[in-house]
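Service request form, structural biology core

Requester: graduate student, group of Dr. S.
Request type: structure prediction, single chain
Budget code: on file
Notes: please return the result as structure tokens.

Sequence provided:
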Amino acid sequence: MADPAAFHRAERIASLPLIEVGRHGGFLTGTGQAIRDIWHRRELLGLLVRRELKARYKNSSLGLVWSLMRPLSQLLIYYFAVGQIIGLARAIPDFAIFVFVGLTAWMLFSEIVSNATVSIIHNQGLVKKVYLPREIFPLASVGSALFNFAVQFLILVAAMVALQRVPLTGEILYAVAAFIMLVTFATALGVLLAGVTVYARDLEHLVEVVLAVLFWASPVVYSFGFVRDVIGGTVLEQIYLANPITIAVMGFQRGLWIAGSDPANGIVWPPDMAWRMLAVFLFSLVLLWVSQRLFSRIQGNFAQEL
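Core staff response, request fulfilled:
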């Protein structure tokens, strides 16, 4: 015989109004609701950022010092291998600062993209148990990367002060614009890749390969002048400059690398660089919107796929 209490409980549940969980709105109208959902859960986003930082340095006696070890070790490697042995340091003034500026920008981009790509998979326990805006997970990766960037940037500023190479001219606006542009572009890619990787797990490994290629396809450890000498005035140069990371890295360098602003050093920059940066920023905004809308479309089956 059926339990009367269970029967009455089922009746009460059936009489309750249906509350749909999730978002509504079309491809063009759902962006505002997505932003409101994320804003209402901004405290949760902050908790996820702190959890990610604590998990990274859990049981570590040095803690945040490890966030500096990778860029500093890469700086030493490229400074001696590329700068001293190959000889680029003799062709590029203040080579150490030049490389550190490029690495700081590159590490911000690569950390956002690589961590955001696997953010949904690494948080599948939460995704399968409770509803919340799934964009929070790649955005938490962005927040964690920004924290590490801030630590590395402080070391960069300290090095500039020690070497008396602090940029105090209007050129620093290039670095500010490059930072905004780079974060927007990286976030757009991160949100898109986070959703697609749930359905195509091999994408995680493909991203690692592409990031390795992009590193050398961007002027991080070599100046744009070397590229101009080889492919200047050709279609290949325009293809090279179409890479948003290339423009972002050069924006950081032009704003923070004082030697690059000295005409006596003969440093070459792309023509109309400010307009190129504006074009990349507008493209990144559109890509961010498209990425979020596609993410919203495919997030409904995340729990089943995971």
